[in-house]
Design a protein that fits this description.
heterodimer; A: 369 residues; alpha/beta; D-Maltodextrin-Binding Protein, domain 2; 3 domains; 16 helices; globular; B: 522 residues; mainly alpha; MetI-like fold
Chain lengths: 369, 522
């Protein structure tokens, strides 16, 4: 920070000199204002500098509960956690461009596809999955470069008044022409859809998946619009019989955090875990990795390890309604009531989502999704 | 120069070979992106023109019930950013949304969802953007109506023109520079909008650029698309310039007497009042009510907010940026006026295009440029960590805002200068005033209203600004806009309500604080 402070001061001084030089003609007000600016900048710079024991997090997850968790971490270890949150790709761009000057230690995001893609660009260093973490996190949900923090399933929702899925219904079945005009799902630009379609490409091949995507588009009840929750609401309102959305959206509505009407609407919809006689339901993760140029690597490891302690996991699942990553932690009861013994797709490595992301988008775009 | 940098960065490697994103785009969606952008632009320009000019005409020339209230109330629409408008629109009309709650409250349980109109994202974006931007057209047009030389109107009367005829033949044409400035601001903001179209998941040129560059790392395609975007805007300017070729809009400084307002009666007055009421309701009352309703319904989201630091951060950015922008706009405008230097004139024309560049693209271009420059410094002079001064710091934010909003500020000051007849300068020189003295003694007092107007416009833009702040901000630094966004991103629009309300509140304070200057009729 030494250089930075120094340089900013020089810039400020140059600026002030320019102002004051012309100042013979300028009003006093402007002089006063420019002095005030200098004051502010200096305070800001000083305020920005010191904090030896810290860890810096760039996060594309926006949960307030994550910030509360970081505060717990600070209370416990005395390590201050600094956070910048933002849109996934934009944050990644900033980290890449900052290069070796980057102060970011950990990058946290939802969706394994994103983690994998960032890893492929060489932005993570090994060490995210420490010995302690390897013991508790299943191999499918981690790599040497990043580790899953929580799980979510992308499932089917249906209207129990109008349809009744057989126990072995699959994502593939949703493209069946008999559901014409009865399916809702969000746009292809959404990363959750891209990961789901990537997993279909991995399992069924690109050609079959392209045909499936066309079938899906034919079955759409409306032009894709809104987020995952809007799809669930469309089923509740009778606009469609089937929706595809992540698990935590329904739990969020059931929790009452979105009001009584949404809570009542959520109760009209049933969750369904597809592909039970095959590979299992599509799973995805929120996860984080340690960045290549992390200045506080040791603290970063500590933070990741903390996030996977039972205490932190319990906090996460109770606030975000995701599934816990480690054994011995109970999912929130709003999620647990859907059933916890469904077959999860542990066969398709989540790292494939990143690799097949572009193909998935292409398949969907070509189908007119 | 500073402002031109990101634009150069965008054009860098423009002629490189095409990456694969463009092929994908060409095959599938490029036309759709273009047509989406074009449709939104067309819709927004028409709506803002109708809203802005009509309301400005009513309140400037006529008296009708509420006319004095609407005069300032209509500018409050500035306080609501398009993305917050979009949050309200979706929340109100979605299945089991606020409209559903209201109907249930009024008529008891029922299946109301199918009767509630559903907004297509395209229409939703159009309305959100129009309601939040028509204020530009309203304020500038109104200012021009008010300062329209009284003599012109008198001439119209003497020629026996009806009020319709004099509106279309005299009032509208002579307000044209103001309307055009207003509409071009609207056009640029619309094309570069990211928050609203992203919220509605509408693919436009801007989102295509974002995807090409940031998701696919295909800088070449991104540049080519940016070129299309800039071309769009350039085209608008060129058309405008051609169509008013030769016309001069200097006004005689005498004869700016306030125009006596005509009292409207009967149907006309009902129409004027209801038009303004509906406009005011839709643009301001509706989003504010939706946000207030949520804030009251979900009081526990209060606790999570660090109210004090949000206030401080937002106001700090506003204050510093407005100051820089206004000072520099004066320097360039005045430079243009006195020096007639071709280079300065060219540079300032060029640099205004910063406004046309979407904030999110500009922010990334800024980061790319600073990194490149910093690496250069480090390899040649061994100065390290230069980029840390600008990326992730308040200094960097202010410079990025500067690049983004220079056009706004420059044009605002310029429109004032256009009205100061050059003969005034010449008279001042004859009186022995130096150029500086002319500036401080004559231009500055003359342009007081413009400075305030511009200052507040910048302040409003910065309070509402989202993508640049989001990506360039320091650690643990939140503004009302980023806080609202982050709640919206976790699908808790209910929690976004309070920061949104605060944002609207501050913006309204700014507006009311200067409204008497904006609305001054002297």
């Amino acid at each position: 920070m030494g250089y930075a402070t120094f340089l900013s001061l020089i810039i400020i001084i140059i600026y002030v000199i320019t102002i004051l030089k012309k100042g013979e003609k300028m009003s006093k007000l402007i002089k006063v204002i420019s002095l005030a600016i200098v004051g502010l900048f200096s305070t800001l710079l000083v305020a920005n500098t010191v904090f030896a024991n810290e860890v810096n997090v760039f996060s594309a997850r926006h949960y307030d509960s994550d910030v509360q968790l970081y505060e717990k971490f600070t209370a416990k270890n005395g390590i201050k956690v600094n956070v910048v949150s933002g849109k996934d790709k934009a944050l990644q761009k900033r980290i890449k461009e900052e290069g070796k000057d980057s102060k970011a230690d950990i990058y946290i995001t939802a969706d394994a596809g994103r983690l994998g893609a960032f890893q492929a660009e060489g932005m993570f260093q090994k060490g995210a999955s420490s010995a302690a973490l390897k013991k508790v996190v299943p191999a499918n949900f981690r790599s040497p470069y990043w580790v899953g923090i929580a799980k979510r399933a992308r499932i089917i929702y249906y209207n129990p008044k109008t349809v009744n899925p057989s126990w072995n219904m699959s994502y593939e079945n949703l493209a069946d022409p008999k559901y014409k005009g009865r399916v809702v799902i969000r746009k292809s630009s959404n990363i959750y859809n891209q990961s789901l379609v990537a997993s279909l490409i991995k399992n069924n091949g690109e050609k079959n998946t392209a045909a499936w995507a066309k079938g899906m588009v034919n079955n759409f009840a409306r032009k894709p619009t809104g987020n995952d929750r809007a799809q669930i609401l469309a089923v509740a309102a009778g606009e469609a019989d089937w929706a595809v959305a992540n698990t935590y959206y329904l739990a969020l509505m059931l929790s009452g955090k979105k009001g009584a009407e949404q809570q009542a609407a959520a109760k009209k919809v049933m969750p369904f875990f597809p592909n039970q006689d095959g590979r299992g339901t599509h799973m995805n993760i929120s996860g984080g990795g340690i960045l290549k140029h992390a200045p506080n690597k040791a603290n970063a490891v500590k933070l990741l390890e903390f996030l996977l302690t039972p205490e932190a996991q319990q906090h996460i699942v109770n606030n975000t309604f995701e599934y816990p990553m480690i054994p011995g932690v109970k999912a929130n009861k709003l999620i647990a009531q859907f059933g916890l013994d469904f077959k999860q797709d542990l066969k398709t490595k989540v790292s494939n989502y990143g690799k097949l992301q572009a193909k998935a988008l292409k398949v969907m775009n070509e189908a007119g999704w | 120069m500073l402002v031109a940098i990101p634009i150069f960065t965008v054009f860098l490697s423009f002629f490189d070979t095409t990456g694969n994103y463009l092929d994908l785009l060409k095959d599938t969606f490029l036309l759709k992106y273009l047509s989406n952008s074009f449709l939104i632009l067309l819709g927004v320009l028409s709506l803002t023109f109708i809203f802005g000019v009509t309301s400005a005409y009513f309140v400037s020339f006529y008296k009708f019930p509420g006319s004095n209230f609407f005069k300032w109330a209509l500018i409050l629409s500035f306080a609501v950013p398009a993305y917050i408008y979009a949050y309200s629109l979706v929340a109100f009309f979605e299945n089991y949304g606020t409209a559903f709650s209201i109907l249930t409250f009024l008529f008891g349980e029922g299946d109301f969802n199918k009767y509630i109109p559903k907004f297509d994202g395209l229409i939703g974006s159009m309305f959100s953007i129009s309601f939040s931007l028509f204020g530009y057209v309203y304020v500038l047009t109104r200012a021009s109506f008010i300062f329209q030389s009284h003599n012109l109107i008198e001439v119209g009367k003497n020629l026996g023109l009806s009020s319709y005829e004099s509106f279309f033949k005299i009032i509208l044409p002579s307000a044209r520079p103001a309307i055009v400035v207003g509409l071009s601001l609207v056009a640029m903001e619309t094309l570069s909008d990211f928050g609203t179209v992203d919220f509605f998941s509408i693919s436009t040129l801007t989102t295509a650029i974002y995807n090409a560059w940031i998701s696919f790392d295909d800088l070449t395609t991104a540049n080519q698309l940016s070129f299309v975007l800039l071309f769009f805007i350039l085209l608008l300017f060129v058309i405008e310039n051609i169509s008013r070729k030769g016309a001069k809009y200097h006004q005689n400084s005498k004869g700016n007497k306030p125009i006596p307002k005509i009292q409207l009666v009967g149907g006309k007055s009902i129409f004027a009042t209801s038009f303004c009421s509906i406009l005011f309701f839709c643009s301001f009352i509706f989003p504010v009510s939706q946000m207030t309703y949520w804030t009251i319904k979900f009081p526990k989201y209060f606790q999570d907010i660090n109210f004090w630091s949000l206030n401080m951060n937002t106001l700090l950015l506003v204050f510093l940026s407005s100051l820089f922008l206004i000072i520099f706009s004066f320097m360039t405008n005045y430079g243009n006026r006195v020096s007639k230097n071709k280079l300065i004139s060219f540079l300032s024309t060029f640099s205004v295009s910063g406004y046309a560049l979407p904030g999110i693209i500009l922010a990334v271009a800024f980061i790319t440029f600073i990194s490149w420059f910093s690496d250069l410094l480090s390899s040649i002079f061994g100065i390290n960590s230069f980029k840390n001064v600008f990326i992730g710091s308040v200094v960097g934010l202010i410079i990025a805002y500067f690049v983004r909003f220079f056009s706004l500020s420059y044009n605002g000051i310029k429109s004032g200068y256009l009205k100061i007849n050059n003969s005034i300068d010449e008279n001042a020189y004859l009186l022995g005033y130096s150029k500086f003295k002319t500036f401080f003694r004559i231009h500055l007092p003359y342009l007081k209203t413009n400075i305030l107007l511009v200052g507040v416009l910048i302040a409003l833009e910065i309070i509402k600004e989202l993508p640049i702040t989001l990506i360039l901000r320091p650690f643990n630094f939140e503004t009302f806009a980023t806080k609202a966004y982050s709640y919206a991103a976790q699908d808790l629009l209910e929690a976004a309500a309070f920061p949104s309300l605060c944002l609207i509140f501050w913006a309204s304070i700014f507006i009311l604080f200067i409204s008497k200057y904006i609305l001054s009729e002297k």
